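Please study the protein below:
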Amino acid sequence: MPILSCEQQAQLAAAICATAETLGQTLSASAAELMASDLADYPTELIAGALQACRRDLTGKLTLAAIIERLQARDGRPDPDEAWAIALCAYDESDSVVMTEELHIALSAARPVLERGDKIGARMAFKAAYVRLMDAARREAKPVKWTLSLGTDPQRRVAAAEEAGRLGRLPASQVAEHLAQLTHAPATAEGSTIACLITGKVAPFASAKVREHCAAIKAQLERNAEGAKAKQEGGRAVKAVDLERRKTEAARALAELEARKARQTPTPDRRAERR
């Protein structure tokens, strides 16, 4: 469904005619309306910027292709060389970067080549995939979508979020949310795991790996506790049996002692006979 309403398309057609006049060209209303209809999938602010760019630097006739070319240059997607530089930063697991959807997919395609150490081949594979994905997204007039990919270096996490805000790649509200989480979250996966074990709660922004690690450690601790309890109960049972054995032996020894005393003590009649 087009982004622009019928009224907005009519206003756009008038703006296209006015732009053509500034370039010394007369454009019919029907042609301008067709061009406005073809541009209806783009946001108005991007179209306005593209028409302004046409008025400033276009030397030939105003065409739909000229407008779309300038629209695409203003959609916020990095060119292939800049995208490759971002991809290399993202390949370093310690770094945090903001990537577009097309950049992320293209990096996944080039990663196997990069892991083999063929940086030139990886760059070629990346650029081929990125250009194909970017062209497809632009043909469909899909707006650029940036996401923050967090690395292991805690300092780079905050810096990447702040840089994304300065460049306008993430909305201010999303940047503030990221910064709040990064400020209060443990800096490393190990820190997240320790916090989980201390508090008994897993942070909502913890990775699947951290969650899995916490669950494994918790299960191991429970098994250790059960083993210690069973060992303690077993020790108590052994002590109880040993105590009963010692009681029995003590009673037997006492009985034997009493019997010996009885044998050694003479009876009264025998004492009389001796006198």
